[in-house]
# Entry
Amino acid sequence: MTTMQKFSPKREKGFTLIELVMVIVILGILAAFALPRFADLGGEAEQASVRGAQGAVKSASAIARSAFLAGQVNGDGNVVLEGEEITITDGYVAASSIAAAAQLSSEFGNGSVTSGVATFTQGSCSFTYTEVGAATPANTAPVISDVTCS
# Structure
């Protein structure tokens, strides 16, 4: 008697071409929706950096004003914050000293100061610090503008 051997086709393991194409199509669709969300991260980071600098300027202005009112002034009538002499004008930080008072990094430099107005710019975003008497009435707080991006 002969025994018949059963031959079953070997089942190959792997993916078919159609399965691979479908995965690529699905990944393409997901990328099309996700890419616009990440495309302009540079602009948002730039704006966040300038907003951080603006917050530092606001805090430094308030701290220097408080030190001035508390009588912590040197012989020139200026305030010394962390070893840095901060020029005071009418009881508030002068535009020429606000970058030092806020300890802004070199990316902002000292701001460009013109007629008592310091402008801080990074990329397309900027804000201004207007010292007392420059464009504000005497005995009022300095004006720190909102961050604007073009």
User: Anything to note?
Assistant: The CA atoms of residues 63 and 81 lie 9 Å apart. Strands lie at 79-81, 84-86, 88-89, 92-93, 112-114, 117-122, 125-130, 143-144, 148-149. Helices lie at 17-39, 41-69, 98-102. The chain has one domain: 19-149.
